[in-house]
């Protein structure tokens, strides 16, 4: 691609999107921390709060369309994620999982909402925070249920395993519970949103570049680049929903694991 | 995006290093949302779910009750119906018996009447016959005497004799029959 661009383009040549495209400047110069993703995250809090407060306000037996919409999402998290995964103690964790799902989903979807068009979760700080929360929750639940010593012992020395295996298993288990889980949880979400946004940038910016190129062949191929960008937008929608689901599902699974009698 | 091209000359930023400000903002925002949803939204939806479950269970209960009621009513109606049918057949039977009795009575009455009329007719016929016999006997006697006196030329004034002769004559008549 780059060779092709160099051969045919005039002027500056095509500059592919890079990680620097994610480093947005502050909205106003005076407040350094107030960037677009920060605004989007606050916007998501407001949107989610307003939507669910409005839809749950009446709590009618026969729901309105709005209540039905809110209830469907809530019911999905409550029944399909919390109840089915965690079991009889699930109600304690519904508020957390519900917040997690709606927060991640909204911030992901910002990536394809016109004019906003930036997935806040592509800034790694937010997935880190969420992963730290989930990490805290499932370890706290495990310690609360089994006591600190027994909980750590069950993680380090999985019962029902021949003794020599512990040489191999104990480091793996400890790494899994204290390093791999929070890291994969946050990086999976971050990388998906990051890569998805980058992919959209490549095709949209590429199409834009080709359209303004003087060469006719480039102009002719430009609509294909845009079309692919649009198709990828639908794909991104799917990925954004899926990642919100996976993040919540894995948190629920970790909580269920911590609550279980044997890991 | 073009406006950031001036950055491309710099060292590319590592996207895995979080911004401190964003960590803080993320934590605050998430906590805020968590508090709002837990306080205002989850209890409402739970209430709606509970109410709905209760409404459905209550509905089922009511339906079961109504069904039971209907069954009881059906049994009652069937009982009433069969008793009504029994009563009707009893009434019919009674009516039939009564009708037969009335008929029988009427027949007996008619027969009695007929018998009475017949008897009266017989009596009247008998009386008339007696009367006819008596008058006939007298006339025949007189005629016979007259005839005999004419033929014999003998006066038969004596009453006793006359009647003896008549008797004998009638006996002879009856014998010759």
From TrEMBL, chain B:
It is found in: Cell membrane. GO terms for cellular component: plasma membrane; proton-transporting ATP synthase complex. One of its GO terms (molecular function) is proton-transporting ATPase activity, rotational mechanism. The keyword Oxidoreductase does not apply. It comes from the Bacteria. Pfam families: ATP-synt_B. It is a single-pass membrane protein. Keywords: ATP synthesis, Cell membrane, CF(0), Coiled coil, Hydrogen ion transport, Ion transport, Membrane, Transmembrane, Transmembrane helix, Transport. Its main location: membrane. Residues 60-94 form a coiled coil. The chain crosses the membrane at residues 16-37. InterPro entries: ATP_synth_B-like_membr_sf, ATP_synth_b/b'su_bac/chlpt, ATP_synth_F0_bsu_bac, ATP_synthase_B_chain. SUPFAM superfamilies: F1F0 ATP synthase subunit B, membrane domain. The keyword RNA-binding does not apply. Belongs to the ATPase B chain family. HAMAP family: ATP_synth_b_bprime. Component of the F(0) channel, it forms part of the peripheral stalk, linking F(1) to F(0). F(1)F(0) ATP synthase produces ATP from ADP in the presence of a proton or sodium gradient. F-type ATPases consist of two structural domains, F(1) containing the extramembraneous catalytic core and F(0) containing the membrane proton channel, linked together by a central stalk and a peripheral stalk. During catalysis, ATP synthesis in the catalytic domain of F(1) is coupled via a rotary mechanism of the central stalk subunits to proton translocation. NCBIfam families: ATP_synt_b, PRK05759.1-3. F-type ATPases have 2 components, F(1) - the catalytic core - and F(0) - the membrane proton channel. F(1) has five subunits: alpha(3), beta(3), gamma(1), delta(1), epsilon(1). F(0) has three main subunits: a(1), b(2) and c(10-14). The alpha and beta chains form an alternating ring which encloses part of the gamma chain. F(1) is attached to F(0) by a central stalk formed by the gamma and epsilon chains, while a peripheral stalk is formed by the delta and b chains. This is ATP synthase subunit b. It comes from Candidatus Planktophila dulcis.
């Amino acid at each position: 691609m780059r060779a092709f661009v160099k051969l045919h383009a005039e002027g500056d040549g095509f500059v592919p999107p890079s990680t620097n495209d994610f480093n947005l400047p502050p909205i106003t110069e005076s407040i350094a921390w107030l960037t677009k993703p920060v605004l989007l995250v606050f916007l998501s809090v407001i949107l989610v709060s307003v939507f669910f407060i409005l839809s749950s306000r009446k709590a009618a037996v026969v729901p309105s369309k709005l209540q039905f919409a809110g209830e469907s999402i809530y019911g999905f998290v409550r029944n399909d994620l919390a109840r089915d995964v965690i079991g009889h103690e699930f109600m304690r964790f519904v508020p957390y999982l519900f917040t997690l799902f709606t927060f991640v989903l909204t911030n992901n979807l910002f990536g394809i909402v016109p004019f906003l068009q930036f997935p806040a979760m592509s800034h790694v700080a937010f997935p880190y925070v969420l992963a730290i929360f989930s990490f805290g929750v499932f370890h706290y639940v495990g310690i609360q249920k089994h006591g600190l010593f027994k909980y750590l012992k069950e993680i380090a020395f999985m019962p029902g395993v021949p003794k020599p295996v512990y040489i191999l298993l104990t480091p793996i288990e400890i790494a899994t519970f204290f390093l791999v889980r929070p890291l994969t949880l946050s990086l999976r979400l971050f990388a998906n949103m990051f890569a998805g946004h980058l992919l959209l940038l490549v095709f949209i910016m590429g199409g834009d570049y080709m359209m303004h190129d003087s060469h006719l062949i480039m102009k002719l191929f430009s609509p294909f680049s845009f079309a692919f960008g649009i198709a990828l937008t639908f794909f991104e929608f799917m990925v954004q929903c899926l990642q919100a689901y996976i993040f919540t599902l894995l948190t629920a699974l970790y909580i269920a694991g911590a609550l279980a009698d044997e890991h | 995006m073009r406006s950031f091209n001036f950055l491309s000359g710099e060292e590319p930023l590592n996207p895995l290093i979080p911004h401190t400000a964003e960590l803080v903002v993320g934590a605050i925002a998430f906590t805020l949302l968590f508090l709002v949803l837990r306080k205002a939204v989850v209890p409402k939806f739970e209430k709606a779910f509970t109410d709905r479950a209760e409404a459905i269970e209550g509905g089922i209960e009511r339906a079961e009750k109504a069904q039971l009621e209907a069954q009881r009513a059906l049994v009652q109606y069937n009982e009433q119906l069969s008793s009504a049918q029994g009563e009707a057949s009893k009434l019919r039977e009674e009516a039939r018996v009564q009708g037969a009795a009335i008929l029988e009575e009427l027949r007996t009455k008619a027969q009695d009447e007929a018998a009475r009329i017949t008897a009266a007719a017989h009596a009247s016929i008998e009386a008339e016959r007696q009367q006819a016999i008596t008058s006939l006997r007298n006339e025949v006697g007189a005629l016979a005497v007259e005839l005999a006196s004419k033929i014999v030329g003998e006066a038969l004034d004596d009453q006793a004799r006359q009647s003896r002769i008549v008797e004998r004559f009638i006996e002879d008549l009856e014998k010759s029959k």
